[in-house]
Amino acid sequence: MKVIELPAKRLLIQANSGSIDGDLHRVDGISKDYPNLLKVPVIVNYANAVVFTKNYDFEVDGWQSLKKYRVGTLKGYKFAEKGTKSIPKVVRAAHFEQLINMLKLDRIDIAIGLELFQHSYSETIKKAGLKVLYPPIMKVEVFHYINKEHADLVPLLTRQLQQMASKGELEKIRTDYITRIIEQNN
To answer: Is 36 helix (H, G, I), strand (E, B) or coil?
Structure first.
């Protein structure tokens, strides 16, 4: 298996078209907009979505609590697209660094990102004077998706991932990854 890193939106488009075989780490329900992608029905990971800001301090209480702010999200982050549907001022960026820069320059008031970003972008966040607001806006459960050309692999992948989950291997991979990110950025 070869893993390719691309911007989230582009990755979805290419996986759906079949130019790549699948997409790792996606929220439930993307098959609605990308019908050629089949979900492997095992939660492989989860992440907390949080609010990053420079100038504001409030308790996050669901998506509605963000309505009066200029909000930045990442393109292709379907959970954020869905959550911000009723928010009037939303900007989408290809990379989290762009959202950090928009916050720094006061072009947006808040940005939605994953809690892990505070570690993987710790220096940039610190230099920009940003902070994370709690509680998380939501817990995002993620799945793997494969292009329908490989539909025969779904039952095999499902069984393997279920075995890994029952043995605690998926949680260990998650914990090891988070520890590595924190250590690399401290």
So the answer is: coil
